[in-house]
Amino acid sequence: MLAWSQDELADRVGVLRRVISDFEKGKSLPHQETMDSMYRVFVEAGVSFTRSSGMLGVNITETANFTNWLHSISPRK
Asked: Which domains does the chain have, with CATH numbers?
């Protein structure tokens, strides 16, 4: 959705990549503070979380898509 690597997400959240990897694999659940930080990072990037008829969903704004695209084509430092 945002095309971030585990390393990028970990940097933004302030945790080790292993924390993200283990969470994605279902090996462990991060501490609540880490989950809150992940939520803030995603919301700041333009992601919104929804609930409708008992179903959870995720939306991403056009601004977030454009910003992510710009980031993907910019030279890496």
From this structure: 6-72 (1.10.260.40)
